[in-house]
Amino acid sequence: MKRPGVIVIAVLGALLGGLLVYGLVQRRDNRSIEAAIRDGKRPAAPDHALPQLDGSGTRSLADYRGRVVVLNFWASWCTTCIQETPILERFQRTLGRRGTILGVTYKDDAADSRAFERKHGLTYPSLADGKLQLAPQYGTTALPETFVIDRRGRIVAVSRGEVSRRFLDNAVQQALRS
Q: What is the mean pLDDT of the chain?
């Protein structure tokens, strides 16, 4: 008969191995968009209709086809998101009719998200992804994350972490050339 300690060690080893494999798979998926862009490809931007944060129905990326979209995943509890909101808001005015910033909340309470928008004077639209129907398709697991999408709905650039004005300028220029 086997000793109980050996069984416990075997079970823990199997669990640890499973977690390691899961972590590797998640990391690979999280970076597949970047790998495609690095290889000179422009992958199609995943899309899913989500409720508008202001409660006026649903929208999807397809509604913005023909314009450049700067898709920004954020949450009211994300301190880095607070730091980048002035850059995104100023850039929204720079884009004008050529495009839009499109915020997507990530696991955030809608009331908290709306309060965040009011407090920081955000004028660009935001969608609510409380059930994570869109974010996982982009490999989004940490905030903020920003994806620049060209007028044909293809991803041209990714910023995982706080976005900079330099990134936005360069990425949007690439998107406008397509």
A: 88
Number of CB atoms found within 10 A of residue 94's CB: 13
How many Å apart are CA 55 and CA 121, to the nearest integer? 18
Cα dist from 139 to 5, 10, 96, 151, whole Å: 39, 32, 29, 22
**Total residue length of the chain:** 178
Nearest alpha-carbon partner for 105 in 80, 79, 76, 83: 76
In tens, the pLDDT along 119-159 reads 999 999 999 999 999 999 999 999 999 999 999 999 999 99
Inter-residue contact 133 to 120 (CB < 8 Å): no
72, 104 in Cβ contact below 8 A? Answer: yes
Render pLDDT for 6-30 as a digit per residue (tens, 0 to 9): 666 655 556 555 544 444 444 434 5
- Spell out the long-range contacts of 26-29 with Cβ–Cβ below 8 A and sequence spacing 24 or more: 26/141, 29/139
